[in-house]
Amino acid sequence: MSQAFDPELATRIESYGVIAVLVVDRADDAIPLAKALLDGGVGVMELTLRTPAALDALRKIRGAVPEMIAGVGTILTPEQVREAKEAGAVFGVAPGTNKGVLAAARTADLPFAPGIATPSDIEAALEHECRLLKFFPSEPSGGLSFLKNIAAPYAHLGLKYIPLGGVNEKNLPDYLGEPIVGAIGGSWLAPRELINSGNWQAITDRCAAAITIIKSTRKSS
């Protein structure tokens, strides 16, 4: 078994260029939230395990909005890997490279993107056949310049990175202009306060603005 993203799934995620990173407090918000993201052109989401509602939200989305590529983030334990898989997660994400979590993802056959911030992190991820890696926290760690430097020794392996942390519509073009960046994590697309207030139009508008930037960036690169 492998937790590497199959080429079709990786291609689909990269085609959007952005993953909406979400904190959901009420499972009942899950379906309108997913539809708001899709209406704005964003078809990939990471439901973070920072609230008890996350897995219930995932189940609702998988049942009612199957076209959404819905994964689970902030996976910190092997048990959470199993729970995410059972709830229907298409992929998993972690903030770090916990070897126990990576081993559990491999056993569960859950495509997994561990968090990296150093060359040692990258090598730990490679031990578990991970090829799509979350660069976190991106801007506080040194941003795109730092990522390019630590990624250079592994360039021949074809790794792709998902920067998250301080990435927004202003620096989005810089990140997506780099071939090593497969997509970016967008926590600004649907912040917690907009979800809790049910402001779905504002979320759709933010997504649409990001997709416009992504298309423009890719057209010019």
Report on this model:
By secondary structure, the chain is an alpha/beta fold. It has a single domain (7-220), classed as TIM Barrel. The chain is 47% helix and 14% strand. It contains 11 helices and 9 strands. It has helices at 7-16, 30-39, 54-64, 78-86, 99-108, 119-127, 138-141, 143-151, 172-176, 192-197, 200-220; strands spanning 18-22, 44-48, 69-73, 92-93, 112-113, 115-116, 132-135, 160-163, 184-186. The strands form 3 sheets. It has a 4-stranded parallel β-sheet with strand order 3-2-1-9. The chain is globular, with a radius of gyration of 16 Å.
Task: Summarize it.
By secondary structure, this protein is of the alpha/beta class. It contains 11 helices and 9 strands.
Q: Beta-sheet strand percentage? A: 5-15%
Radius of gyration over alpha carbons?
A: 16 Å
- What is the number of E strands? 9
Helix content: 40-55%
CATH superfamily: Aldolase class I
> Which regions contain 5 or more consecutive residues with pLDDT less than 50?
none
Distance between the termini: 36 Å
Strand order of the largest sheet: 3-2-1-9
- The name of the CATH topology is TIM Barrel
Please state the structural category. alpha/beta
